[in-house]
Design goal:
mainly beta
Protein backbone atom coordinates (compact mmCIF):
# COMPACT_ATOMS: atom_id res chain seq x y z
CA UNK A 1 0.00 0.00 0.00
CA UNK A 2 1.05 3.57 -0.66
CA UNK A 3 -0.73 6.88 -0.36
CA UNK A 4 -0.04 9.55 -2.96
CA UNK A 5 -0.72 13.22 -2.33
CA UNK A 6 -0.53 15.73 -5.16
CA UNK A 7 0.02 19.45 -4.71
CA UNK A 8 1.01 22.48 -6.75
CA UNK A 9 -2.03 22.96 -8.92
CA UNK A 10 -3.72 26.29 -9.39
CA UNK A 11 -4.75 29.01 -11.79
CA UNK A 12 -2.17 30.36 -14.24
CA UNK A 13 -2.23 32.42 -17.40
CA UNK A 14 -1.36 30.90 -20.75
CA UNK A 15 2.39 30.80 -21.19
CA UNK A 16 2.99 30.44 -17.47
CA UNK A 17 4.47 27.60 -15.44
CA UNK A 18 3.50 25.34 -12.58
CA UNK A 19 5.29 22.53 -10.77
CA UNK A 20 3.22 19.66 -9.47
CA UNK A 21 4.46 17.41 -6.67
CA UNK A 22 3.39 13.91 -5.74
CA UNK A 23 4.46 12.86 -2.27
CA UNK A 24 4.34 9.16 -1.47
CA UNK A 25 3.81 7.69 2.00
CA UNK A 26 6.64 5.21 1.49
CA UNK A 27 9.57 4.55 -0.79
CA UNK A 28 8.82 4.82 -4.48
CA UNK A 29 12.08 3.14 -5.42
CA UNK A 30 10.37 -0.24 -5.77
CA UNK A 31 7.87 1.01 -8.33
CA UNK A 32 8.98 0.33 -11.85
CA UNK A 33 7.17 3.43 -13.02
CA UNK A 34 5.61 6.59 -11.68
CA UNK A 35 3.34 8.65 -13.89
CA UNK A 36 1.16 11.69 -14.21
CA UNK A 37 -2.27 11.49 -15.82
CA UNK A 38 -4.85 14.19 -16.43
CA UNK A 39 -8.59 14.22 -16.91
CA UNK A 40 -11.19 16.72 -18.06
CA UNK A 41 -14.95 16.30 -17.58
CA UNK A 42 -16.47 13.77 -19.93
CA UNK A 43 -13.13 12.45 -21.15
CA UNK A 44 -10.99 9.47 -20.28
CA UNK A 45 -7.95 9.89 -18.10
CA UNK A 46 -4.95 10.64 -20.31
CA UNK A 47 -1.35 9.60 -19.70
CA UNK A 48 0.82 12.73 -19.62
CA UNK A 49 4.28 11.54 -18.56
CA UNK A 50 6.03 8.47 -17.17
CA UNK A 51 9.33 8.00 -15.40
CA UNK A 52 10.80 4.57 -14.79
CA UNK A 53 13.03 3.40 -11.98
CA UNK A 54 16.05 3.66 -14.28
CA UNK A 55 15.22 7.27 -15.06
CA UNK A 56 13.90 6.92 -18.59
CA UNK A 57 10.91 9.08 -19.43
CA UNK A 58 8.05 9.22 -21.91
CA UNK A 59 5.65 12.04 -22.71
CA UNK A 60 2.39 12.50 -24.53
CA UNK A 61 2.94 14.25 -27.84
CA UNK A 62 0.83 17.16 -26.65
CA UNK A 63 3.26 18.04 -23.83
CA UNK A 64 6.65 17.11 -25.31
CA UNK A 65 9.14 19.93 -24.98
CA UNK A 66 6.98 21.73 -22.40
CA UNK A 67 6.62 19.30 -19.48
CA UNK A 68 9.34 17.51 -17.54
CA UNK A 69 8.82 14.62 -15.14
CA UNK A 70 11.38 13.84 -12.45
CA UNK A 71 11.65 11.77 -9.31
CA UNK A 72 13.48 12.16 -6.03
CA UNK A 73 13.72 8.69 -4.52
CA UNK A 74 15.23 10.02 -1.30
CA UNK A 75 12.21 12.29 -0.79
CA UNK A 76 9.69 9.76 -2.17
CA UNK A 77 8.41 12.46 -4.48
CA UNK A 78 7.66 12.78 -8.16
CA UNK A 79 7.44 16.14 -9.90
CA UNK A 80 5.89 17.48 -13.07
CA UNK A 81 7.35 20.77 -14.25
CA UNK A 82 4.91 22.36 -16.68
CA UNK A 83 6.07 25.27 -18.82
CA UNK A 84 4.46 27.22 -21.65
CA UNK A 85 1.06 26.18 -20.39
CA UNK A 86 -1.91 26.32 -22.74
CA UNK A 87 -5.65 26.50 -22.00
CA UNK A 88 -5.97 22.92 -23.29
CA UNK A 89 -3.73 21.78 -20.43
CA UNK A 90 -6.58 22.60 -18.04
CA UNK A 91 -7.47 19.39 -16.20
CA UNK A 92 -7.27 17.54 -12.93
CA UNK A 93 -3.81 16.00 -12.72
CA UNK A 94 -3.32 12.66 -10.99
CA UNK A 95 -0.23 10.87 -9.81
CA UNK A 96 -0.01 7.11 -10.36
CA UNK A 97 2.35 4.45 -9.04
CA UNK A 98 3.18 1.02 -10.36
CA UNK A 99 2.13 1.28 -13.97
CA UNK A 100 3.36 -0.98 -16.77
CA UNK A 101 3.04 -1.02 -20.55
CA UNK A 102 -0.35 -2.62 -19.96
CA UNK A 103 -1.72 0.37 -18.14
CA UNK A 104 -1.69 2.39 -14.92
CA UNK A 105 -0.80 0.98 -11.53
CA UNK A 106 -3.18 0.44 -8.65
CA UNK A 107 -2.28 3.53 -6.70
CA UNK A 108 -3.72 6.98 -7.41
CA UNK A 109 -3.59 10.31 -5.68
CA UNK A 110 -6.65 12.47 -5.14
CA UNK A 111 -5.77 14.85 -7.96
CA UNK A 112 -4.90 18.51 -8.21
CA UNK A 113 -6.69 21.02 -10.42
CA UNK A 114 -4.73 22.96 -13.02
CA UNK A 115 -6.54 25.79 -14.77
CA UNK A 116 -4.90 27.77 -17.57
CA UNK A 117 -6.63 30.97 -18.61
CA UNK A 118 -6.31 32.44 -22.09
Amino acid sequence: QVQLVESGGGLVQAGGSLRLSCAASRSIFSFNAMAWYRQTPGKQRELVATIRSGGSTNYADSVKGRFTISRDNAENTVYLQMNSLKPEDTAVYYCNAGGTILGPGLYWGQGTQVTVSS
